Amino acid sequence: MPQSGIVKYHVKLSYEIDGLVERTDIVGAIFGQTEGLLGPEMNLNELQRTSKVGRIEVKPKSTSNSTSGIAIIPMSTDIETCALIAAGIESIDKVGPFDCKFKLDAIDDVRAAKKEDIVRRAKEIKRKWATKTVSEGESMLNDVHHGDSARTSTYGPSKLACGSGMHDSDWIILVEGRADVKNLLRAGYNNALAIEGAKIDESIKELCDTKNTVVAFLDGDRAGGFILRELKSLVSLDYELRADPSVEVEEMTPQRIDEILGPVAEEIKAGKQKAPVTDLDKPLAEAASKIFSGLNETLEAVALDDAKNEIFRVPISEVVSKLATQSGIKYLMLDGIITQRLLDGAKGAGIKCIVGHRIAKLSNSEGMTLKTFGDLGIS
């Protein structure tokens, strides 16, 4: 990888090809068949030029009439971009003239391995100095070691766990349990309060009424979805955040927590509010808000008719081909980027409204309503 790029993730894919091919054929297919699929900013050549993608390592093994192996892609982007690139490569169905299948095996956090080395070395240092006289500096380190528990507090008659900064902060982060509060403390957020159960304590509503901004940050599993619905029935939420799919907040790294909470914290700090939704956009915002929680982080697209009924739901890689066979679609919403290819396909299907996370540089978008979820006050 170029020296200016710091590898964060290794995207690992396995592949099977119904024919004998060389390494260069496989690399060529990865670059060629993903070009333009996810928009110009996701082009692998461009990502390599900007040091966000390193040299793709391909290890082929050939039999008498087939080729298989693994491909490893070093990346310095965020996890969302890694997931999009992986999904794009999984859509490759040809290497040269031969049918093939790519499958994502893992996205490894390279930094996690470095952290393990650091912890291992720290333990060695601790053993080496264990027999030394306790010094002022060692006492200070002990304070740091126990800092998380020292900064926890409780709230209300049920003594709900919270960060000590929660009482004085003008915004609050609602999480599921005590372990989540402690993990947010490690990430630098001391204004979290634990709900501690699916039945929401009445004192939480009273507290939220005194705060300027209320953020829900819940586990990425099914139970987290149930708790979010219960919470919304009692409290007016300004932001609804979730951990990565099937991941609990207490399991997340401080870096990943900050990737999710950081932009919200900056927005609140700057005094910004959610985007105002005009009367013209309200029907679109209502349709988008109903499906957002079930669409976000799925890498899928959903088509709705004029009555906001779902017509189909497919992976983003299949949406353009699906549009060619469908009619009666009014809204198209996707967990991804609105690209030129998608826009052209939507125009051909008679679609007028598209909502995604981002909008690429487009041409010939006249007559189309293109919005991000953020534009509609949804995050």
Topology of this protein?
Blueprint: E1 9-17, H1 23-34, H2 44-49, E2 57-62, E3 67-75, H3 79-90, E4 94-95, E5 98-109, H4 110-129, H5 136-145, H6 147-150, E6 152-155, E7 160-163, E8 171-175, H7 178-186, E9 192-194, H8 202-208, E10 213-218, H9 222-232, E11 239-242, H10 254-269, H11 282-295, E12 300-304, E13 310-315, H12 319-323, E14 331-334, E15 337-338, H13 340-348, E16 353-356, E17 358-359, E18 369-372
Quick synopsis:
Helices cover 36% and strands 24% of the residues. It has helices spanning 23-34, 44-49, 79-90, 110-129, 136-145, 147-150, 178-186, 202-208, 222-232, 254-269, 282-295, 319-323, 340-348, and strands spanning 9-17, 57-62, 67-75, 94-95, 98-109, 152-155, 160-163, 171-175, 192-194, 213-218, 239-242, 300-304, 310-315, 331-334, 337-338, 353-356, 358-359, 369-372.
